[in-house]
Amino acid sequence: MRTDFLMDLNTQERFFEFLQINEFSYLIMRDKKVYKTNDLYEFISEDGRLNCYLYHDFFGDINMYVDGDFMAFSDIDAPVIYLSNSLYFENTHSVKCGKVQTNITYHKDGKSVNKNKVLKEYFCKINFWLEQNLAKKFINHKQILVSNEINYLLTIGKITNFLN
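That's the Crp/Fnr family transcriptional regulator sequence above. Prediction below.
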């Protein structure tokens, strides 16, 4: 399950408030470690990029892989929702899509395994917020949810490049 979006900073602020209200924990893998926080802004890099995982204890346990100083988890079987933010680069007239994504099932030992159904409910809750606050638009043959501000910039030609 995946939703791509483009949003301006004001809409992103409202989206982050929505996530905060829903009391997510945020996980990031950096420097061979897994870090957890309740403050999403701790994980935004200097250039504005955010790549993290949304998590609730009631989604289920995360199997950590530890090897000496190295610690990580696989988002294939972990009950997490991946989040990256969208970015607008005014100087190059470029945007990078953000996304929320999760796998509801995975394969183990030749069998399909379902993750906790609450994970899917929360993904749908996030998706509902995005659909209520962003407009559907087809860009490069792909449906993307777009904020009013970004849509305006697209309309007047201030955005011409789409980055992966």
